[in-house]
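Table 4 source record.
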Amino acid sequence: MKLKNLTIGQKVLIVFSIVVILATLSFIHLLQKTYNSALVNQGRSISQEILIFRKWAAGFGGLWTMNKYSPDTGYLMEVESDSGVVKAFNSEETLGNLSNLHFYLHNPALATRELSKLSNVEYGWSFKVVSDRYMAKESKPDSWEKKAISVIKKELPSGKDEFWSWDGDKFRFAKAIKVKRACLKCHGTQSEIDPTLYKAMVAKYGEEAVRRATGYKEGDLRGIISVTILPPGVLSTALNFIDFWNIGALILAFLIFWYFAKREIITPIERLTKAAHDISLGKLDIDLGVRGMKEEEVKDEITKLAIAIDRLRASIQIAMDRLRKKR
């Protein structure tokens, strides 16, 4: 369809529709960027909290739980005692005695794994520690995590230690784990690891796995914290922001635009078109409503056009009067 076959009103509606569509697409793009930024901040916050927890746990040699552990995760070492004396902090007073004690050691990796299971149940997101030199099978990276490790390894010298992207309907965030001094207790060279602890790791993970996951130096990339978030889609998030006031404001904006276009553009052009048509048929006694106005005193282009057409009408009328007199 050619534009010349459309009325001014139809053209205005088409332009308005295009503007609304482009504005909507721009809004969705802005919402997507804001949404991604919020998810990145959430992933960054989660990973930083886990790093702090792991640093704390490693600094104290791991976590010991009394008489209880998670069967599917297990533990690294166990300490048994028939009895134990109970004392309060900063006190030598004996508060009581405990019998048949069992303490289970959870290194930072095991503790992190158990926290991840709890967070997945409670909050709908999960995290885990993975490495290309993994010790436990659960720490073996998937395809996305392999890519994240590869990217972080390349960009780590420049100071960038994060990677994120969408993986289907999941938002995934990776944070580098650098080897600290406390990490060498489990992941340093064999001479740096306590022999008892080394034997316990071999018993749990196997000789090959322990060799693969040890031999690090301080500052090396140990692996990544991989955070997986299952957020609602952008569209559903946008719909949550739309209410009666949003729809009402959009309708009001359209009505204001249409009123202005109709009053200031469409109706004046229709009037000028009819006037030009009448003038072409010799009807010169028409009033365009601009008599007495000077073109240099107005800025509205349509009003200037009306003044010019009225001047043309007057010129034609003068010419017709002179022609009649000559006859």
